[in-house]
Amino acid sequence: MSQAVFRMAVRLRLAQSASAAFGLVAVLIMVGALFPAVGDAIGELDLPEGVADLLGGADYGTITGWYRGEISSVYGPLVAGGIAIVAASASTAGEEADRILALILAHPVSRAGLVAAKAAAVAAGVLIVAVATWVGLIAGVAVAGGGIGVGNLGAYALHLAFFGFASGAVALAIGAGTGRRGLATGGAAAFAVLGFLINGFAPLVDAIAWLKYISPFYYYAENDPLSNGVEPLDLLVLGLFALAMTAIAMLGLQRRDLRA
Fold it and tell me: pLDDT tens, 197-219?
């Protein structure tokens, strides 16, 4: 991996990651502040099973259910996945579209080393968001009056980070293999959205219930880290998937004739 490419990629995306992290912390604190006022009034919603699963169980009567429904089910993965996908799509595919990738590769860096550096930079941006999520959750839960341990909050942030790694790796693989930034962004976003829907609705039909196992959302949320802590097997699956997609990105870039 090229250290120079890694540092440059992190520097270029630092403001974006930092602004997302700052906004996320603010949202998490505001969500915590709202719980004492409206959590008990909303309680547990009586919704169909699939819809309730999409909303993290639709239990707003506890601080765990409140954060699961307001943050864990949609907002958290949207921010982490969005940061990862945008950064990964702008890496090889974006630089190729801007006609600068060939210039970068004219320096003493291999294509595989370039992809590895870009993947590491994407992961660094996701980690910034994940750490901010942990800090924001600690503050938000404290404002709400407590109820979730710091360890479980950290477990959720870790699961969120691995979800971001997986989402970014999909964009990196598509971008490196095609050189199309729009296709990388759209393809990775479609993969994440489809996974979200599959995880929510596939279990309702016995014949296709197995499809949930191909959804990154299943491994991100099925263990409910806010309640149960870290699930190492789920993180292993997401991590191996991210590594496999990164390897595919290396192979895809290696085999292509780049646009000058």
Answer: 887 777 777 788 788 888 898 89
